[in-house]
Amino acid sequence: MSSLSIVVPARNEEGNLKDCVQTVLGAVDGLFTEYEIVIVDDGSTDGTGALADRLASEIPAVRVVHNPVGTGFALAYRRGLEVASKEYVGLIPGDNEIQPVSMRAIFEAVGTAPIVAPFTANQADRPWLRRVLSRTFTETVNTLFGLRLRYFQGPSVYPTALARRIPTTTRGYAFLAEMLIRALAAGHRAVEVPMYIQPRQFGASRAVTTRNVVTSLKTVALVLWDVKVRRRPLG
Q1: How is 4-56 classified by DSSP, letter by letter?
Q2: Looking at residue 52, what DSSP letter applies?
Q3: Under 8 Å between Cβ of 115 and 183
Q4: What residues form DSSP beta bridges with 91?
Q5: Chain segment 157-215, per-residue pLDDT in tens
Q6: Which H or E run includes 78?
Q7: Which residue in 214, 197, 188, 126 sits closest to 155, CA to CA?
Q8: Residue 224 backbone phi and psi in degrees, to 5
Q9: Residue 190: which of 123, 136, 109 has the closest Cα?
Q10: Between the CA of residue 204 and those of 8, 39, 50, 195, 208, what are the distances in Å?
Q11: Domain coordinates of the chain in residue numbers?
Q12: How far is Cα 86 from Cα 38, in angstroms, rounded to an integer?
């Protein structure tokens, strides 16, 4: 069996983080020879940092990295990636929005292809605006890059060495799509896994904002230049 690092970016997720970690622990149970959960406390102003430290003191597999100020989702993930020590690296947001059965399915697929690319199977449970934006983004990316994936913004799992080689040009949520597009353009194969989401228990998602939409479009344009014009998907 392989080994897995799970990066958990968390900014002001005090109400969700403990359940998220417990879900991850249940999902990895028995699947890997070694695993670790790397919580990245991204400048939280609530009790997230203290909770993360408490979980690390109670659970040997949990490690914590504290960012003094918020850096954003993308850089929080990259910070966790820097310290990841296992063969594969996954991403589970600290909001605990992924259903346990889906998290298990994602981890079970590790090793069946170089990349595990989850796609949201219950989009109908999301707000209509997010559904429209997601569908439009996916169709646009597939058309521009000649791909046929169901989703580009899922928490993909990569070989750790490959993830560290993939450059990202954005601090926004579009880094998930950027990494996946670049890896596929470089010839790495992905297996798609259905993922079911569940409502957050505390707080609200910050994924759909005008700024994030604009940033996503700029990111796609930059990646298109690297992939189609420069022919250098990995920089």
Answers
A1: EEEEEEESS-TTTHHHHHHHHHHHHTTT-SEEEEEEEEES-SSSHHHHHHHHH
A2: H
A3: yes
A4: 7
A5: 999 999 999 999 998 889 999 999 999 999 999 999 999 999 888 776 666 577 888 88
A6: helix 73-83
A7: 197
A8: -60, -40
A9: 109
A10: 17, 19, 21, 20, 11
A11: 3-229
A12: 11
83, two tokens: 């310290």
Q: Mention every residue, 6+ apart, whose C-beta is less than 8 A from residue 26.
A: 100, 104
CATH of domain 3-229: 3.90.550.10
pTM of the entire predicted model: 0.94
End-to-end C-alpha distance for the chain, whole angstroms: 32
Of 94, 118, 81, 109, nearest in space to 11 by CA: 94
- Residue among 109, 80, 83 nearest 92 (CA): 80
> Rounded to an integer, what distance in angstroms lies between the CA atom of residue 86 and that of residue 161?
10
Three-class SS state of 41: strand
Question: Scanning the structure block, which residue is given the tokens 């913004």?
Answer: 153
pLDDT at 231 (0 to 100):
95
Place of tokens 């250098």: 232
Give the span between the Cα atoms of 57 and 61, in whole angstroms: 10
Q: Name the one residue in this structure whose structure tokens are 């750790």.
A: 160
The two structure tokens encoding residue 99: 């259903």
Closest CA to 171 of 90, 76, 81: 76
Are residues 53 and 67 in contact, defined by beta-carbon separation less than 8 angstroms?
A: no
- Are 73 and 162 in contact by the 8 Å Cβ rule? The answer is no
